[in-house]
Specification:
It comes from Hymenobacter citatus. This protein is mainly α and about 130 residues long. It has helices spanning about 1-15, 25-65, 75-95, 100-115, 120.
Length: about 130
C-alpha cells in the first residue's frame, strides 16, 4: 500500500509543469556572467582551503617530528594529498572551467547563436536572473 501511494505521488508530481519565464538576451548574458563569477569565487575558496590544510598539516608534521608519538611521513603525505590536494584540485578545476576566457567565449557564442553550453545551461538558476 505504501509503494502504491509513492507511485501515485511520483506520477502526479511529474505532471505539474512549472511556469516558464521568458528572459531577454541581455538578462541571460548577465545571468551567465553571474554564474561564471560565482563559480570562480568558489574556485578561489576551494583552492585557498586546500592550500591552508596542506600548509597546516605540513607545519604540524614538521614541528612534531621529534615527538615519539608523531605519525609517519607517509601519513603526512597522504594527509596533505587528501585534505589539501583534493580541495585544491576542485578549486583549480573550477577556476579553469569558469575562467574569464571561457566566460567571454560563452557570451559571444550566446550573442551570435543563442546557444549556451550544457554545463552552463544546467547551472542557470532563477537566483542568477535577479
Amino acid at each position: 500500500m505504501l509503494l502504491l501511494g509513492s507511485e501515485l505521488h511520483a506520477q502526479s508530481a511529474g505532471m505539474v509543469k512549472p511556469p516558464t519565464a521568458s528572459f531577454s538576451r541581455s538578462d541571460t548574458v548577465r545571468a551567465v556572467q553571474r554564474v561564471f563569477s560565482s563559480h570562480r569565487t568558489g574556485g578561489w575558496i576551494w583552492t585557498a582551503v586546500g592550500g591552508l590544510f596542506a600548509v597546516r598539516i605540513a607545519s604540524v608534521a614538521a614541528t612534531s617530528s621529534s615527538d615519539a608519538w608523531a605519525g609517519s611521513t607517509g601519513g603526512t603525505v597522504v594527509g596533505i594529498a587528501v585534505l589539501g590536494g583534493v580541495p585544491a584540485g576542485i578549486g583549480v578545476g573550477k577556476l579553469t572551467r569558469f575562467s574569464q576566457q571561457k566566460e567571454e567565449q560563452t557570451v559571444v557564442l550566446y550573442q551570435q547563436s543563442g546557444i549556451l553550453p550544457p554545463y552552463i545551461r544546467k547551472r542557470l538558476k532563477p537566483k542568477f536572473f535577479r
